[in-house]
Design a protein that fits this description.
By secondary structure, the protein is an all-alpha fold. The protein is built from 6 helices and no strands. The chain has helices at residues 2-19, 24-36, 40-53, 56-72, 76-89, 94-105. α2 packs parallel to α4, α4 packs antiparallel against α5 and α4 (56-72) packs parallel to α6. The relative contact order is 0.11.
């Protein structure tokens, strides 16, 4: 099942991060997994690290995902800021625009 495969994949992912703590692809994947598992605090921390260290396209995706997480938590002002950050980093990313609109409606 998905949870079992994710658990098995955690060891290599953690090893990659031990070798390179700023490996943004691994941090992004870890953030996504933490979010899916309901560990929102860890997801926020990992997304924030990606936003701070990754190239613009990946940082924009992390900002968008963090915005979605914050929006689900009812933290609309913070979510809006994340969506706007994502748009500033990658203005043609349609999903960030759509998510910003949804956030503003809430």
């Amino acid at each position: 099942d998905q949870a079992g495969r994710r658990t098995a994949a955690m060891a290599p992912l953690q090893q990659a991060l031990r070798l390179n703590p700023d490996y943004t692809e691994a941090l992004f994947l870890l953030a996504s997994w933490c979010d899916e598992a309901g560990n929102t605090a860890a997801a926020q921390e990992h997304y924030a690290r990606v936003i701070a260290t990754a190239p613009k396209p990946q940082a924009a995706l992390a900002a968008n995902n963090l915005g979605c997480l914050l929006d689900r938590l009812g933290r609309q002002a913070e979510a809006e800021a994340c969506f706007r950050r994502a748009i500033a980093l990658r203005p043609r990313h349609c999903q960030s625009w759509l998510n910003l609109g949804g956030c503003l409606i809430n």
